[in-house]
Amino acid sequence: MVETRYVIPHRARTEALVAEALRAAGQPDDPARWQWIEHGSANLVVLAGAAAVRVGRDARAAAESLRAQTVVDALPGLPFTVPRALADPVRDGDMVAVAQSRLDGVPHPSGHGDAEVLRGVLDALAAVPIRALEARLAPPHAFMGGEQWHPVMVERAIPLLAPDVRDRARRAADDLAALEPVPEVLVHGDLAGSNLLWDGGVVTGVIDWDLASAGDPAIDVAALAVWHGWDVIERVRPPEVVHRARIIAATHLLQVVCFSLVQGRPETEVARAATWASARM
């Protein structure tokens, strides 16, 4: 997703909360040994020892982080690791910190990738039984407004764009709305970039499950294709799925604007997201 200078929680409270979460997980709580990861739209993360502590940027993000952790902890065994909880969450008012297992691996460079490895990730997600997870999963399209995503995109987000890209954006939104339903599978919802960790040429971990839902598998195909290249994904997914993925990917920039709107982010952040989208559509 796009860096838009997100809301920053109170630093002193955050540090105290992180330290408490680390102590609960039996990990070092010396701030001098922490590594801060602050590019996430909903959460910031502190790495320390064998733990990764997530702190929501606001009360809504904190609640979503707690829900998402129940999804991760309920996932069956997968051919890659996931960030399971190391201890109970700790709270300070509306702030919440969750200590998770820190996963090995690093993000893959964009523009290329091993098609067969990516096939394995997609196949593993599709094979997860979703019935047992349904009550914990995010609603479909949660990132951009849930059931109301199309009105949010058309009536609120697109008018914020530069005039010369609005027609193109409206066509993209309408094309997405026109897709016929398909059988649902477990969808990660943001399956690319820093959320896939690689080591030795394989995916060793998948993080950031906040948007996991029961949905169209083409959602994850689109994310992987945008990061690794459409030519890579076309080798491991049928043409009809790739076609759907292209339609979904055409709205990615709009989805970021929608996210800022539905999350009630500051006007300056919404404006930056709209400017970013306008320049790249």
From TrEMBL:
Reply yes or no: does the keyword S-adenosyl-L-methionine apply.
no
This entry's Gene Ontology molecular function terms read: transferase activity
Q: Which UniProt keywords apply?
A: Transferase
The highest taxon in the source lineage is Bacteria
Kindly indicate whether the keyword Transferase belongs to this entry: yes
Gene3D superfamilies per UniProt: 3.90.1200.10
UniProt name for this protein:
Aminoglycoside phosphotransferase
The lineage is:
Bacteria, Bacillati, Actinomycetota, Actinomycetes, Micrococcales
